[in-house]
Structure formats: C-alpha cells, structure tokens
Design brief:
Layout: H1 20-42, H2 52-59, H3 66-84, H4 101-111, H5 114-127, E1 132-139, E2 142-149, E3 160-166, H6 169-176, H7 180-190, H8 194-201
Antiparallel strand pairs: 1-2, 1-3
Bound molecules: fe (ii) ion (FE2).
C-alpha cells in the first residue's frame, strides 16, 4: 500500500505565496486521490510491491497501463514538488538563495545566470499548454529546463529531476486565479529548495 508522504513543513509555511487553503486541497485532496487511485489499480498485481519510480519506468510506454502510469507519476511528482519547496522566509530575511558551488557553476555556464534560469523556467511554465509540470533536470551531465504534460515525468525520458513546479490549475487557482506566471515567479523567488536540488544533483 502506498501512503501519502508527510508534508515536509506546516500547511501554512508557504504563505503568503501559497496558502494553507491551497495545500489543504492540493496536498490533502489531490495528492491523496492519486495515492488512493494507484492503490486500487495495482492491488493484486506484480506492481504492488514496486517503488513509484519503478512503476513509472515500467508503465511509461505501455498504453494498456496508462491509468497506473498517470497515478504513479502524479503521486511521485507531487511528493517531489513538496520537497522542491521550503518555508517562505520573512521579507527582512529575503536574500539570494544558497546554492552549492558545483551546481552554481553549472547553472552559470548553462544559463548565464540564476536570473536567466528563472526566466527560462517561467517561460516554460507559461507556454505549457494545459496541465503539466516544469522541471530543472540533469540530462547526462547537462542541466536543462523541461516541461511535461499532465502526469508525464522526467524518469520516463531518462532525465534526472532536480526541482519541479506543478503548473496544473489546481496548484494556483485559489491563490492566483489565472495568473500562472505570478505563481511561478513567487516560487522561484521565495520558495525554491536549492538544498533539495543539490541532493538530487549529486
Ligand atoms: Fe498538483
């Protein structure tokens, strides 16, 4: 049985950028529903004892397993998203993020600057048609920004995810209505967890 992983912070910890009300629905209802659906779909099958990552890899290219892939990937993507965020700093503490030197060197050589990375990330988020995810991934030894539609996931394409932002409407509509760009900008500037990126980068 898969269970909803604990949120790594309090539900109000991302305010004022993401409200506790949004997390009540997004984490408490949407994420929970993907877990519940996955448990029903894999019950009694050989996938029941696999990790989410293995289920994603095994079902990604099999049209007969689309429902399992979608729910496993969404369960994984949401857990990854919660870890991609960290509690908001108070405005007086706002400062440049601490990024591990090796990762920062690669960011600068790939994008030119952290601001350029943010701009590319935001452009990908705004141009993702409909539901999906924007990722910072490691493709071999290279860094890149990638967007995926619906439940799709970097592991299904052989990329290693470092950070993600959920750009499904349910992620931002209560707080930002149709302003996806503002939601993404707020996360990039105030909530992104670069320590998590560094752990994934190693
Ligand atoms: Fe979501």
């Amino acid at each position: 049985m898969f269970t909803l992983p604990l949120l790594p912070y309090d539900r109000a910890a991302l305010e004022p950028y993401i409200s506790a009300r949004t997390l009540d629905f997004h984490y408490g209802k949407h994420h929970q529903a993907y877990i519940d659906n996955l448990n029903k779909l894999v019950a009694g099958t050989e996938l029941e004892k696999e990790t989410l990552e293995n289920i994603i890899k095994k079902t990604a290219s099999d049209p007969a397993q689309t429902a399992i892939f979608n729910n496993a990937a969404q369960a994984y993507n949401h857990a990854f998203f919660w870890n991609s965020l960290r509690p908001a700093e108070t405005p007086t503490e706002a400062s440049l993020p601490e990024i591990a030197p090796k990762l920062l060197v690669l960011i600068n050589s790939t994008f030119g600057s952290l601001d350029n990375l943010y701009a590319d990330f935001k452009a990908a988020a705004v141009s993702q048609f409909g539901s999906g995810w924007v990722w910072l991934v490691k493709d071999g030894e290279a860094l890149k920004i990638a967007k995926t539609a619906n439940a799709d996931n970097p592991w299904a394409r052989g990329w290693k995810p470092l950070l993600t932002i959920d750009v499904w409407e349910h992620a931002y509509y209560l707080d930002y209505q149709n302003r996806r760009a503002d939601f993404v900008e707020a996360i990039l500037r105030h909530l992104l967890n670069w320590q998590f990126a560094e752990i994934n980068f190693r």
